[in-house]
Write a structure and sequence with these properties.
8 helices; 207 residues
């Protein structure tokens, strides 16, 4: 499967059934595979915890390091997300959900850049949705069945991070293969190389 796709920039949720304008994006589609009951239960539990994405720090130095990272990342993202509050909320949530899943925050930002170009309502031709281009079948497998919720900021990032963590565990820590599985192009170099390249732009000191 080619990782380069054209995406649809959806209107607000109430208008998702309407005709949508096309705009370019790189997006993939995870392949639906059978899940063992224990794996399904673990993934469902991982996405169900609705803890708010608010950072907590044991000391002042950690908090200051986080604030420096947030300021630097916000400046780098300004060209793609002009509104300050929206940009900060997005970065706070990426930081929280990536760390919650045991993933590097620059990696997740690089993946989002490749998958959706930081567009909240991006939809691929395969039907993948949102920032991390999550396929709707995941809402049925491990969520509440409502695929529309994949356009919600924290829901999309949580699903995406949990799914990538699942693939990384399945590939025994091999990030190259895990990224390929995430994109539906396992074993091919094009997509992982795009993500690795995008990650470098976000590789800055982190709390």
């Amino acid at each position: 499967m080619r990782p380069a796709r054209r995406a649809l920039l959806a209107a607000p949720l109430a208008l998702l059934g309407a005709s949508l304008p096309q705009c370019p994006a790189h997006a993939g589609s995870q392949v639906e595979e059978p899940l063992a009951d224990a794996v399904r239960s673990a993934l469902a539990a991982a996405v169900a915890d609705a803890a708010p994405p608010k950072p907590r720090f044991d000391n002042v130095d950690d908090r200051l390091a986080y604030l420096r990272w947030l300021g630097t990342a916000s400046e780098r993202l300004k060209r793609r997300k002009a509104e300050h509050h929206t940009r900060i909320e997005f970065l706070e949530t990426v930081w929280y959900e990536s760390r919650r899943a045991g993933l590097e925050t620059p990696l997740v930002l690089g993946l989002i850049q490749v998958e959706s170009g930081f567009r909240k309502y991006a939809i691929s031709r395969a039907g993948a949705r949102g920032y991390m281009q999550v396929m709707p079948f995941w809402a049925r497998l491990i969520g509440d069945g409502d695929a529309r919720r994949l356009f919600h900021l924290q829901t999309n990032l949580r699903f995406g991070c949990v799914i990538l963590r699942h693939y990384l565990d399945r590939e025994r820590g091999d990030l190259f293969l895990a990224l390929g599985r995430y994109n539906g192009s396992r074993g091919k170099a094009e997509y992982p190389n795009l993500v690795f390249g995008a990650r470098r732009a976000w590789d800055m000191p982190l709390a």
